Amino acid sequence: MKIRVTDQTGKEHELEGIEGWRVMEIIRDWGLPIKAECGGACSCATCHVYVDEDWMDRLVPATDEELEMLDTAPAVEDNSRLSCQILMSEALDGLHVTLAPGSE
Ligand code: FES
After folding, report:
1. Ligand 1 centre and the CA of 48: distance in Å?
2. Which of 21, 23, 46, 99 most suits a substitution to test ligand 1, by most atoms within 8 Å of the C-beta?
3. What tens digit of pLDDT does each residue of 50-99 get?
4. pLDDT at 103
5. 2-99 domain in CATH 3.30.1220.10?
6. 83 CB-side CA count, 13 A
7. Ligand 1 center to residue 75 CA distance, Å?
8. What distance in Å separates the CA atoms of residue 18 and residue 87, rounded to the nearest whole number?
9. Where are the domains of the chain?
10. How remote is the CA of residue 11 from the centroid of ligand 1, in Å?
11. Is the ipTM of this complex over 0.90?
């Protein structure tokens, strides 16, 4: 299964997704620039991504904890999510996200 990630320069990358991995871990471990300072503990907001509108409804909704942390991120939009809170699964094959300002 694949995910597509647009980096901060606008370049799109296709990355192999692994079931059960956090989207943040896939982005980080495949070498794209993402800070993800807290390592996935939902306590830094530096793994902020914009999710393609078509995919928003297919994700497990954000928890209150994620929404509170997102409030601290710059340039939050309706399609903002923390990529460490999105778990990869077959259902997300083809997911497209864009790295947000402040995540690099
Ligand atoms: Fe810190 Fe996602 S890595 S909130």
Report:
1. 8
2. 46
3. 999 999 999 999 999 999 999 999 999 999 999 999 999 999 999 999 99
4. 82
5. no
6. 31
7. 16
8. 9
9. 2-99
10. 22
11. yes
